[in-house]
Design a protein that fits this description.
Length: about 220
């Protein structure tokens, strides 16, 4: 690792997820991360066929459509649909490799919630993620940081507190980020819809309309 290697090119923020469905927990965290880190290029990237889950509930096309609806009035947050367009399963390490190819040695910042960060050592070729991108770990309600042995060894020496450090090198550092704590999850929203409760005010109204129209969840 060489976290201090000089970089050129505009920094890119990548926020991956299943977004099944997207909600204000995702959207608020994305906006705050983009502003705190002063990123001009920030992309939400829906997982195609996520390898770490048996299945998603809504299809990739529906999840992408809901994300686009949610962001239609906020063009500063972009959608990267490459995993949905690609056939078969998508590993984040491959996706980041592709983005790295396109972006040269620009800083790439991968956003991830604390719960997902705790499970990072379950991801395909997770060691390589640090060669490709920085990690920005966003605090999430009800998730403390718990890193198991091998993960702790990787995470600990890479930790920084100054966001500016991430913009001076292409990859390899980890920044914990405080964002407004919204205890919203897609699991809970799906449960509400299933049981006939209203998820209103937890996610954008056009996304709720879409869910009802297509009878998702
Ligand atoms: P599910 O309940 O189906 O797992 P989710 O709400 O966790 O859905 P994901 O699509 O799994 O949403 O999350 C994508 C990314 O967004 C993950 O890195 C996750 O940690 C993060 N995230 C999800 N909800 C929040 C939230 N309320 N605050 C901060 N980060 C969040
Ligand atoms: Mg989740």
């Amino acid at each position: 690792m060489n976290g201090e290697m000089a970089s050129s090119g505009q920094a890119i923020g990548i926020f991956g997820g299943t977004f099944d469905p997207v909600h204000y927990g995702h959207l608020r965290a994305a906006l705050e991360a983009m502003e705190i880190l002063r990123l001009q290029d920030f992309r939400l990237l829906p997982a195609g066929t996520p390898p770490h889950r048996a299945n998603t509930y809504a299809s990739a096309d529906h999840r992408l459509a809901m994300l686009k609806l949610a962001l239609s009035r906020y063009p500063e947050l972009q959608v990267d649909d490459r995993e949905v367009r690609r056939e078969g399963s998508s590993f984040m390490v491959d996706t980041l490799g592709e983005i790295r190819q396109e972006e040269g040695d620009a800083p790439i910042l991968m956003m991830i919630g604390q719960d997902a960060a705790n499970d990072l050592d379950q991801w395909h070729e997770w060691h390589r993620l640090f060669d490709l991108a920085h990690l920005v770990i966003m605090r999430r309600p009800e998730s403390k940081h718990i890193y198991s042995g091998a993960l702790f060894e990787q995470v600990q020496p890479r930790m920084v507190n100054n966001p500016g450090r991430l913009l001076n090198s292409p990859a390899g550092l980890i920044l914990p980020l405080e964002v407004t704590q919204l205890a919203i999850s897609s699991t809970e929203i799906r449960r509400q819809i299933r049981t006939g409760l209203s998820p209103r005010f937890l996610l954008p109204a056009p996304v709720i309309d879409y869910i009802l129209e297509y009878r998702l969840y």
